[in-house]
Predict the 3D structure of the following.
Amino acid sequence: MAVITTRKEGDLLIVTSDNPPVNALGQAVRAGLTGAIEEAAQDDDVKAVVIRCEGRTFFAGADITEFGKPPLDPWLPEVVNTIEASAKPVVAAIHGTALGGGLEVALGCHYRIAVPSAKLGLPEVKLGILPGAGGTQRLPRIVGVSDALQMIVTGDPIAAKKAADIGLVDRLADENALDADAIAFASDIISNASHPKTSERTDKIAADAKNPGLFEDFKKNNAKRLRGFEAPAACIEAVRAAVELPFEDGVKKERELFTKLVSGDQSKALRHVFFAERAASKIDDIPADTPVIPINKVGVLGAGTMGGGISMNFLSAGIPVTIVEREEAALERGVGIIRKNYERTAARGRMTQKQVDKAMSLLTPTLSYDDVADCDLVIEAVFEDMDVKKDVFNTLDAIVKDGAILATNTSYLNVDEIAAVTKRPEAVIGLHFFSPANIMKLLEIVRGEKTSAPVLKTAMALAKKIKKVAVVAGVCFGFIGNRMLRQRQDQAQVLLLEGAKPWDVDRVLTEFGLPMGPFQMADLAGLDLGWNKETSKSATIREVLCERDRRGQKTGKGFYDYDENRRGSPSKEVEDIIAEFAAKSGNEQRDISDQEILERLLYPMVNEGAKILEEGKAQRASDIDIVWLNGYGWPAYTGGPMFWADMIGLQTIVDGLEKHADRLGADFEISKFLKDKAAKGETFN
Ligand code: 3HC
Ligand code: NAI
């Protein structure tokens, strides 16, 4: 069936797109739209046109799968121009999401009507590009520079109500009667003396032209979130062109910037991320008809750092939580922190007091394990100690109802070993949240040897409900993320002894785009985690730092010296401590280039990623990328560690590892899987 169909209703031509799943504007849709506008032009009975979509959404954008391939006629910018040039007014009837090219089509229409639940946005920047069908020129002409910058540069969509407030939507339709309301609206506007062409409007930008500071202010206010990305600056430049140039020249500028970005590495990487995010939610060997277990009540064991954060995810999603501690004081402290976190969110205006009260009312604190007996899911977040965990699972197995899921939040321990103490290993799974668990997006779902398909599928569905990005990992030390992190941490320590300074190591990684280096991270977390004054023997750099009360940011010094604003600066004392250790270990300190630091830190991670794939501990290379993007702040514009390796070439990684082989440690081995792929000229993705 044709993806675009037309039908007459009175003096209206109703144009319908039916291109599941999201009405992406592929070639057939574009050609169909052009044809429909021509049809309307040639039919004297037609007085106005309504463009609407079947299925779950209005056009959600250009067809991303066409990017990077030879362009197919008609181009989207031409289609939008054709719509705008139509002598007969065109109304966009919007439901679901009008995104990217979809919103650009709507901007080419003379009028827009939307249901209240609709969202409108130009998310191209998230794909490393900018709106390329006139969006950067038309949107500011309708809503002004300030709102246009916000939408185009952040890529975040806005709700229909807000769109109506700023003039982007002309009328809000009844939620359940879009078609009828769109027809009524189109009939109303037929008699208007003229129909607005967005490209000809100047009222909003004329006002903004008098305030050129808008652009600089926007850049300044958003500097942090835009760091390292190429597309946002291009978006700003394009919107500036809308203010400073005639429409045709502005469009040329937009095209120039679009063409450059779309063929660049950042856009390739960000497109990879888009599809990787969607792939991560798919589990290849689970039948589609696998049932999902309803989760209406959750138990959490341990009200410490993780237990509290984990609970908040469910409370915020409206799912009651029973939280268990060993002692009243710990329970009170844990619940107090949850409340304080919610109240801080409310103080920042991101939650109402009513929502805080609602979330807290769903929380039941208790000292008795018996209270989790009727939970559908119990998540253990007690100390990281195998004996303690076994004990806890043994108890849970005896108490918790049949059919419930028993999960552990362990960071490193063997989930199969934990499952083996229960009589229901098929119900046991790892749910590895990242700290702070109420904020970090990533959830590693650890699939035990015996974990059943319904349990796994339920965990995936639940992750979506609590707005986490879930990745399935197999049982191994540290799963995907921490297993790779360990490689980087080990090399960072060795590099110090060879002569690199902590601040050089950190700088190389932050310049690469990571939010923090290992020594900044250690100072933030506290160097004394797991350190004991009584047993400390000055055996490691870390021990010596703790002994000298350099225990991180909280004591004002660690690897760095901190000022009152917690800004770190290099420390001579630390340099001396490192030099002493180097001398003792027989390491000659040398100058180490930034490039070597980068290779030594990141290539072993890629190598570990290859081993994870080789052992089947991750389903696909892109899942590893998703872990690092969402759990460790890996810069999205490089696509994640595995995609980054693909881009620089796997042979480059192998060559680098071979070059540094003598320094990588006696146990270090290059993955055979990586070597084979490199030799064949293949990539991970
Ligand atoms: N092109 C091609 N495929 C797309 C697509 C697009 N624009 N948008 C979504 N899809 C695919 C997804 O890959 C997925 O495929 P799969 O089922 O095989 O995995 C399927 O459609 C469903 O997508 P989601 O799983 O994301 O469905 P949701 O219902 O959760 O979300 C959505 C729907 C909000 C529309 C979301 O898909 C989305 O944000 N899409 C991308 C929007 C976007 O970035 N548009 C701009 C494109 S660039 C552009 O328009 C350039 C122009 O300026 C010239
Ligand atoms: P924590 O020490 O802050 O909290 C543990 C809590 O469990 C304490 O409040 C303790 O009183 C309580 N507890 C201990 N035994 C108990 C029992 N038998 N019954 C009920 N409560 C008990 O520890 P944290 O950091 O929250 O870690 C918990 C788990 O989460 C560990 O397995 C850890 O490896 C894992 N994890 C920790 C992360 C982190 O960054 N802190 C990140 C991801 C996982």
